[in-house]
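Lab channel / #folding
Pinned by the channel admin:
"Please post every new chain as: sequence first, then the structure tokens as a reply. Keep commentary short and put observations after the output so the thread stays searchable."

First post following the new format, from NK:
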Amino acid sequence: MKIINKKNISSKGFTLIELVLYMGILMILIGILSSIFTSIVDVQLESTATSSVNQDGRYLLSKLLYDVRSASSITSPPNPGDTASTMQITSNSIIYTYSLDSSNNLQVVNGSTSETIILNGYDTSVSDLTFTRIGSGDSNDTVRVSYTLTSKTKERSGQETKSFQTTLGKQ
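Reply from TO:
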């Protein structure tokens, strides 16, 4: 029979206190990293929402400006001072109608083919769309357009919203 001396046994494991200490440190690090990751995701969502609202807003203004400048006439709203939620222009003998659809998208409908094109992006919605006729006739054919764009991206601080307004005139 062999006698085992305690001095000959090497300890190859961790004590319970060491394991609890390591687990506590690991939990603190995971908590800090989770907080940093959450902050990064929030900032990225806000940046994406702001960017999409600004890009869509600039695109819509440019598209409306180009279409009105190339139109032969603005038929609706008909009289100076009239305000409407739709605008009709005639270009190359085709009537185009700009309005909101049921999903709050700005759409343009080609009167001859009934083709509908959504102008804003999938991640924004348009509201408070108004067209106000300012002038009439060849040199004074102008319309003031105003609308509000809202991002569909949900953020902690709320949705990104921006209002746009400009005056469009024929050339």
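NK: The chain has one domain: 16-169.
TO: also worth noting, The helical segments are 16-69.
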